[in-house]
Amino acid sequence: GLLESPTSAGVEIEHLTQNVLKSYRETCQLRAEDLQLRRWDTFSREEVCAYQRKPMEEMWQRCAGRITEAIQYVVEFAKRLRGFMDLCQNDQIVLLKAGAMEVVLVRMCRAFNADNRTVFFEGKYAGAELFRSLGCHELISSIFDFAQSLCALHFSESEVALFSALVLVNANRPWLQDQAKVARLQGHLDVAFRVLLRRTRREGLLARLPPPGRLRALCSQHVEQLQAFRRLHPGVLHAAFPPLYRELFA
Amino acid sequence: LQEKHRILHKLLQNGNS
Fold this sequence. Notes:
The complex is a heterodimer of chains A (250) and B (17).
Chain A: H1 8-26, H2 32-37, H3 45-53, H4 56-80, H5 89-107, E1 112-113, E2 118-121, E3 124-127, H6 137-151, H7 157-168, H8 179-199, H9 212-232, H10 236-240, H11 243-249
Antiparallel strand pairs in A: 1-2, 2-3
Helix pairs in contact in A: 1-4, 1-7, 1-8, 4-5, 5-7, 6-9, 7-8
Chain B: H1 6-13
């Protein structure tokens, strides 16, 4: 009944929604209009070959750099979310450590062209084959499949904003100190998301959202591949990867 | 946890950038 009557709870939820949307707009890294305008600007055959010829370590380093940039925007998003900075520092770190990459993967659907299975990467749209020298075909395929499945939901920007806030503020993450406080914030975000969906007659979306396990599995796959890379190229991770990336995944 | 995540901790402590 939150939407039907202008109760103070309803007003609070509306303020929270506006805060999430503003936080998201300010930290979305790439504007949806720009991504849309450039969605057919793909790498040429020669450019793809040049990427494929790069040594594995250089390609890993580049991808780690792009992931780290994206994560920095997610950290800024979290900091602007009302209630997030009121959590204790342990819980802020727990939520970001577990959820930042998941949010990056959700945000990636905006930068994915499902019509030709390409993703915006270093200035142009790239197909999965561009990432060949990483040596993790399965992970790349899984990420592309995930982006494709999210694109099929035709998320609006508001829906991406609220869904990613919910991916981040998850009271089920292990090692939280004040789980009840996180659960309260998660509950408010959940109501805000449902109110938005009801208002836009998109309630059907709820049943089609990816299960949390799917995001978790993708993140585990990423960490496993990083460990495999580390065994192949000991020392490179420490010498050349962004410190924030190492802190989160190594 | 803060000890193991100094960069994240620092990013969280900095004002909005």
